Amino acid sequence: MDDRSRKTLRRVKRNGSTLTKLEIGGIDRDRDPTFATFDINPDYEPHEGGIASSMSVNDMIKFGTFLGKNKYIESLTVHRPTYKPRPHSSSDDGSFDELTLEQLLEYEEALSLPPQFIEGLKRNSSITKLYLCNDNINNRGLDDGKVGYDILKIYEEKGTLTELFVMVCVLPPSSSLIATTIMSCTNLIEITLLHCSITDEQLLPLVEAIRHTSLEKLCLSTNAIQNVGCQALSTLLEDHRCTLNTLDLHNNAISNEGAVILYKSLGNNTALEELRLGSNPIRNTAEDVISAPGSMMDSLSRLLCNTSSLNSIHSSNHTLVTLSLPDPVPPNINDFFSIKSK
Hints:
The chain contains 13 helices and 10 strands. Helix 9 (256-264) packs parallel to helix 11 (296-305). It is elongated. A 10-stranded parallel beta sheet has the order 2-1-3-4-5-6-7-8-9-10. The protein has helices spanning 3-14, 57-69, 101-110, 115-123, 145-158, 177-184, 200-210, 227-238, 256-264, 286-291, 296-305, 307-316, 331-337, and strands spanning 21-24, 35-38, 75-79, 129-133, 163-167, 190-194, 217-219, 246-248, 274-276, 322-324. It is of the alpha/beta class. The longest helix has 14 residues, at 145-158.
């Protein structure tokens, strides 16, 4: 066991109130007393017995026991291990072939969490915030990885999360694990699914799951959401039970049509304060407004100039204060909603 893992093990055992954030992998945070970092295997080299092979079984039993009893750790961050593929053939120039599917599967199994840690996490009652991070955009692996899968399954059963953050994971079309986890965790306040290649099809079950929560912040930035996905999100915004105050759709594939669908859905919404649509293919230039009747800005302007629509939106949605678009919003929106363009 490396030194920082040994130190973390002692702090988890001590069960002190200052340790509130546990991190597997990642950088040292010695200056932050609320953090403790733990390396199951610093080199992430798979060996017989999985990634815990750099530690003894007894060490892992201790860690699982201490984690299960800890009452103060609130958040768990897991940096998904980056496999270091051994070459299975080489060419004259010294380069190596890519891993085959079979080899990837072998690495995924080797990079799984040891059962002693899983059991301890199941018994723990204090962790309510989960952050699953794949720091290397070019190393997505298979689906969301064995590590992320194992941990999500725990909270699908426990239903205790208030915050879920997933970064750089490819979700297969057939995967429903995140949606079922959201469905179980009815006390979720914040969800971030960043750079997960989410499509309109994959968004539908997520939206249905969110209906069962009291979610306040939803970030779906840098995915593959298009106009059909906006239609699904609009049904959520139109629901009188909707509690979202922030919706971040930055850097997707949303066009003018999708943006207008979202904005129209705010007619009876009294919760949303921030809508982010920046870095989407939305036409939003002065030339568009003048020459293109179907442009985003023209559509919003006509919507606001319509008395019934204006009265409806202004009388109900007076909470929207931030609308992020590729270019500045029309002045008349600022007049009625005090919107800050970001």
